[in-house]
Amino acid sequence: MASRPSIGLPKLSRRSRILLIIAAVIVLILLVGARLLDTYVEWLWFGEVGFRSVFTTQILTRIALFFAIGIFVGGSLAISLIVAYRTRPVFVPVSGAEDPLARYRSTVVQRLRLFGIGLPLVTGLIAGWTGQGDWQKVQLLFNAVPFGQTDPEFNIDIGFYAFKLPFYEWLIGWFYVALVIAFIGAVITHYLFGGIRLAGRGGQLSGPARVHLSMVAGLFVLVYAIDYFFDRYTLLWSSRNDQFTGASYTDLNAVMPAKLILMSIAIFCAIAFFVGAFLRNLQLPAIALVLLVLSGLLVGVAWPAVLEQFSVKPNANEKEAKSIERNLNATKQAFGLTDDKITIDNYQTGSATSTDQQIRNDTGTIPNTRLLDPSILSPTFNQREARANFYSFPDKLDIDRYTVDGKVQDYIVAAREVATSKLTDTQNTWINKHMVYTHGNGFVAAPANKIDRAPSTDASAQGGYPVFTVSDLNAINTKQKMDIPVTEPRIYYGELTQDYAIVGGSPGEAPGEADSANDKSYFYKGSGGVPVNGWFNRLVFSAYYGERNILFNTGIGDGSKIIYNRDPRERVKLAAPWLTVDTDPYPAVVDGKIMWIVDGYTTLDNYPYAQSTSLGQVTTDSLAGVPRQQDRKIGYIRNSVKATVDAFNGTVTLYGIDDQDPVLKAWSKVFPGTVQPSSAVPEELRKHFRYPEDLFKVQRDLLARYHVKTPQEFFSAQTFWDVPSDPTKEGGLDPTGNAAKQPPYYVLAQAPGQSQPTFQVTSALNSLKQQFLAAWVSVSSDPADYGHFRVLRLPTEGDTTPGPIQVQNQFRTTDQFTRDRTLFQNTGTDIQYGNLLTLPVGGGLLYVEPIYLKQKDINAFPQLARVLVSYKNRVGFSSTLEEALNQVFGPGSGANTTKPEDNTGNTPSTTPGTSSTATPPANNGAATPEVSQAVTDIQNAIAKINTAQKAGNLGDLGKALEELDAATKRFTDAKAKAAQPTNPPPSSNPPSSPTPGQGGG
């Protein structure tokens, strides 16, 4: 019988093979081309900012890791496959005529190189690509520095836990992966070529297969033993106990000894596998494996559980005292809360005397009381100072301080940035978006304690808006006096500039950049950007952005540059990938230049015994308009770096302000020369450093528990504090604490113990699960006292101090506020509650909250209408801080508040805010002509208010309220003159309700 001809693959001509090779190369280029393109664009960007060493270090480390891990994992599989194939049985047993493995075996044999090289190669590529992302662990291992402090259990320097242990754990993980893959490859190969047979009773295993698999399994168990050894160190950040992080009594006395026992058993088990492999006896490895499993259950699980339930929990306060004390010390050290950085004073508000006189004499806090809320006023800045539709301000403005005319003043600040998203349909062409509207123009600031309301005697006056001081091209060109002078107001890099821009070029060819609302004659002269005057770079960026106009636009030529990665946070994150960047950069004018200041944190995932803290959760509060931190666990944090980004040139500069931070030292060794020392910080720049919000949020959350001194205090939690909910936001009055937390506030104030007002970040803290105040905490931002905590601890028994929620409830139930809210809150107007500040004044705590009105219109913007003040259950409610303080403390108490300003910036001679009611006051005194006329004026004003409310006209409503305010003042004066009354003592319920016609403090 003739044999059946074999069917083989068709032979290819030389031309066909060449075409196939070309096709394969094209496919490869398409697959890796995008990544190569991204890499080249990044390389250009790092060269622009002068951080190319950061890029090359990352790339080289990633490449080295890629090949190291790929060769290790892929090589392990290759060796395992080779051993299994070469030790296969000479005669492969056939299970039957239709052996299901025969065709697979034949395929593998015919393509040995494909499977023997291809499978390990693919596996290595996948493993290498996965592992190269962990380049930071490797670099920290090779650049580790000592902390100079040791852990309390093993007495090992903390640097081991910070820089070496993470790498060892990572390496052990890759050993597991390599051995598991090698074992699976060996099993499949042996099975395919008959070394493993499932037929028969219990199956059969050839001698070589037994040796091979036993050796791989033994190596796996040996790695398991090494893992047990290093697991002992990771117990120092155990989370067994819900109250604290760190090795608990059970961990120290049961789990840790169990790790050593299990490590010894695992070593014995590994030896048993090796011996069993050569003795060709699987009984010994099997017995050792059973012993390992049983001991793991009994010693590693059962014994710790028994000890925990029957010894530790019934006596937890005693048993855990040692671990809690370690946790207290380590947490304070890891999060910068050591005793030398914190001053805690008892603040006995109930025993304060001469309070009213102290308020009158206060010149540090009251005059600087902030009325402008940066989270509310972005629409006001946009409507009043944007100047053109393509300019805009961030949703959340910033706060900084400047010395103007010899006086330190806090300002609401913002950069007037370009916002191409606001271009109209006719403006929104590619050329306009990327070549014309390329930059912003100017630095805008407003004193935080002033508004522009004119005198109350002017019934037609409008106001309640910030008093702007602007530093821009117009001020420079017209030689106007700038309170905060700038020499270069153009802003090419900012929070709103997300698109790339092509700038510069030759006049007459390039379209020119919009330098103001109408001027389009400017061409970028800064050092930022990557040149695109050559055809290669134009082709690269055309492909990168998928935009052919970059390639064919004739306006791109000599001198043209492309600027990208323009967000300050993004630039700092790229330049220093090892930093955790604060979520709220802020602009500052330093030596005439607009600079973005970005705070950078060095963090560690774990620190022995330090409390594990969720960065995303503790930094999330009611504040809108800012990004959020990634929700990851950290055990250590330092604000070690202050970064600046030049708004004109995009230059990134890193300053190390904590030169003693070991983590910063390690990264400085990884990227030498990228971080300048603290001594290099210009003094003018240092004056604008703020203590960063995200760090403060982390620290206040921990300080609420870690202010205690003893383990017994910590265990009882009796003196713990809470971060209060923000009562000014929706749901903020929920007493269950489910609402968003109150954010910290920057204020210029003089806290107890300070000789002059300082710029500081502050927060109120409630007693645990209670609504009364337990503490007030602030951190100074002044260079001489930077980073020092001041904590005022309030009485929690007897005469307690109301917390933010209690004060807000008090505000909203005050008769005067209730009546005016009825007038304000109508179908055409919304009330917006500003930030509720807590300020220590006169031996007590003063609460101040601005109230804003806003029309229900897309183009409307808020107007400050009222100021609420509370002090020891006495409430003031007026259109000025001065009058609100007078209501609480008596006439003259608010005399030191800053006077309101008119639209020209001049300080008018204002009459103190007066009161109004929703209905005309009854004439209970002598009906003099002045009194009768005032009553008539009040009735007319109320009629106008009703008309304005129905029309939803906020302007007319403001005028009517001004008239009502003035008429009520005339009524009060006329009635007082007729009755000749004496000055009554201050009352906790002022008899009148003022209107929004006057300026705030």
What does this structure look like?
The protein has 28 helices and 35 strands. With 1001 residues, the chain is of the alpha+beta class. The strands form 10 sheets. Strands 3, 23, 24, 25, 26, 27 and 28 form a 7-stranded mixed sheet that branches. Strands 15, 16, 17, 20, 21 and 22 form a 6-stranded mixed sheet that branches. Strands 29, 30, 31, 32 and 33 form a 5-stranded antiparallel sheet that branches. It is globular and about 125 Å long.
Short description:
This protein is an alpha+beta fold and 1001 residues long. The chain is built from 28 helices and 35 strands.
- The total count of strands amounts to 35
N- to C-terminal separation? 112 Å
Helix content: 40-55%
The computed structural class is alpha+beta
Shape, principal axes of CA atoms: globular
User: Cα-atom Rg, whole angstroms?
Assistant: 36 Å
DSSP summary: helix tally? 28
- Main sheet properties: 7 strands, mixed
Poorly predicted runs of 5 or more residues: 1-9, 454-461, 899-925, 981-1001
Proportion of residues in β-strands: 15-25%
Would you tell me the overall average pLDDT? Answer: 86
Based on the model shown, name its key terms.
alpha+beta, 1001 residues, seven-stranded mixed β-sheet, six-stranded mixed β-sheet, disordered C terminus, 35 strands
Write the layout of secondary structure elements.
Layout: H1 14-49, H2 52-86, H3 102-110, H4 112-131, H5 135-142, H6 158-192, E1 196-197, E2 204-205, H7 207-234, H8 249-279, H9 283-312, H10 316-319, H11 321-334, E3 342-346, H12 355-361, H13 378-385, E4 391-392, E5 398-404, E6 407-415, E7 417-418, H14 430-436, E8 440-441, E9 443-447, E10 469-471, H15 473-477, E11 490-491, E12 501-503, E13 530-531, H16 535-545, H17 549-552, E14 561-563, H18 568-575, E15 580-581, E16 586-590, E17 593-604, E18 613-614, H19 615-618, E19 633-634, E20 636-646, E21 652-656, H20 662-670, E22 675-676, H21 683-686, H22 693-706, H23 711-716, E23 721-722, E24 745-749, E25 758-767, E26 772-780, E27 789-793, E28 801-802, H24 804-813, H25 815-824, E29 829-833, E30 837-841, E31 844-855, E32 863-871, E33 874-878, H26 881-889, E34 915-916, H27 929-951, H28 954-979, E35 993-994
